[in-house]
UniProtKB/TrEMBL annotation:
Gene3D superfamilies: B-lactam Antibiotic, Isopenicillin N Synthase, Chain (2.60.120.330). It comes from Rehmannia glutinosa (Chinese foxglove). Keywords: Iron, Metal-binding, Oxidoreductase. Pfam families: 2OG-FeII_Oxy, DIOX_N. This is Fe2OG dioxygenase domain-containing protein. Belongs to the iron/ascorbate-dependent oxidoreductase family. Residues 223-318 form the Fe2OG dioxygenase domain.
């Protein structure tokens, strides 16, 4: 018999039982304090807007059957006059890019004090006085510096446990007074160094693809550099949410600097594999626009141990408004290797990616031929 005190769900009252997600998202956004603001307010429970969808947690890291690690490549002693050494590095890059879409590099030429100061600068930015920081909070993508929590807050299935700041550093570098005082000098210095390293990596990647060394650089792959610095506060219930949902990057190549907390994982043959912090190393990952057959999908776990900080430098193109088409590299096509994706402009691809947000199916799939 039906219990009369039990309320029955009907078409007219169903909305009372489904939490008003949009209002909660809006309220959170209006605080301009991000996830860090929640933690500073000493919350002990993760708000529902951050609950991950179940398929985000599919294939949890506990299910690992074999212990795998992505390759760590030593760029030390790399010398154009030393063909044997060069051949070795190029082969390793070819291997790592083809199987993982990810590798780490050590002895990459960026001094460790610059890496440390970059991470320190990111901490200074997020941990500064809230009244100063909130002036940078915006969802207006035309601003030089865009700080907010979850660029896809109102589009994604679940919000991520992190705050992010976005800034284009090349081809046009902002002047220091356009950047946050907490980290302006190091943003300029670090991105200069990453740009140099990026051109070098594109040379190696070109050779790994059996192209002329300058092919990818000539295509404009290293002209544009977007810097994203993230802050993942310690999470009271890391089993309920993610620092970053599963995604691939929308660029040609990403150079990522992470601190020593950990949590970054790459999806490899249906398993989540940890990308452990290696002192002094930078993580390199192939973005969608350089992707041929593999998706280098990755995510970041939320963590009791935070805050965790990281800096992702996205190599795009200097020509965000250009109609230049990127697609299968003609030199690499053959009957056995037909084109898989249609051509697109960097602008079209970024807009499509942005509209989809993180956590869903890969944006690249929508460009399959
Ligand atoms: O914080 C990290 O380790 C990863 C960040 C990331 O995946 C991104 O910015 O696209
Ligand atoms: Fe990413």
């Amino acid at each position: 018999m039906e219990n009369s005190s039990q309320v029955k769900l009907t078409a007219s009252n169903v909305h009372d039982f489904i939490f008003d997600r949009t209002s909660e998202l809006k309220a959170f956004d209006e605080t301009k304090a991000g996830v860090k603001g929640l933690v500073d307010a000493n919350i002990t429970k993760v708000p529902r807007i951050f609950y991950s969808l179940s398929d985000d947690f599919e294939m949890a890291s506990e299910n690992h059957t074999i212990q795998l690690t992505i390759p760590v490549l030593d760029l030390n002693g790399f010398d154009r006059e030393n063909p044997a050494r060069k051949k070795d590095v190029v082969e390793k890059i070819r291997d790592a890019s083809g199987t993982w879409g990810f590798f780490q590099v050590v002895n990459h030429g960026i001094p460790v004090n610059i890496l440390d100061e970059m991470l320190e600068g990111v901490r200074r930015f997020y941990e500064q006085d809230f009244e100063v920081k909130k002036e940078w909070y915006t969802r207006d993508g035309s601003k030089t510096v865009v700080y907010n929590s979850n660029f896809d807050l109102f589009r994604a299935g679940s919000a991520n446990w992190r705050d992010t700041t976005y800034c284009n550093m090349a081809p046009k570098t902002p002047t220091p007074d356009e950047l946050p005082e907490a980290c302006r000098d190091i943003m300029i210095e670090y991105s200069k160094q990453v740009k140099k390293l990026g051109s070098f990596l594109f040379e190696l990647l070109s050779e790994a693809l059996d192209l002329n060394a300058d092919h990818l650089n000539n295509m404009g792959c290293s002209d544009g550099l977007a810097m994203l610095y993230h802050y993942y506060p310690a999470c009271p219930e890391p089993e309920l949410t993610l620092g970053a949902s599963k995604h691939a990057d929308y660029d040609f190549l990403t150079v990522l600097l992470q601190d020593n907390i950990g949590g970054l994982q790459v999806l490899y043959q249906n398993q989540w594999v940890d990308i452990p912090p290696v002192p002094g190393a930078l993580v390199v990952n192939i973005g969608d626009l350089l992707q041929a057959t593999f998706f280098s999908q990755h995510r970041v776990l939320a963590n009791h141990a935070g805050p965790r900080v990281s800096v992702a430098c996205f190599f795009t193109t200097g020509l965000m408004t250009s109609s230049k088409l990127y697609g299968p590299i003609k030199e690499l096509l053959s009957e056995q290797n037909p084109p898989k994706y249609r051509e697109t402009t960097v602008r079209e691809y970024s807009l499509h990616y942005n509209a989809k947000g993180l956590g869903g199916t890969s944006a690249l799939l929508d460009f399959r031929l």
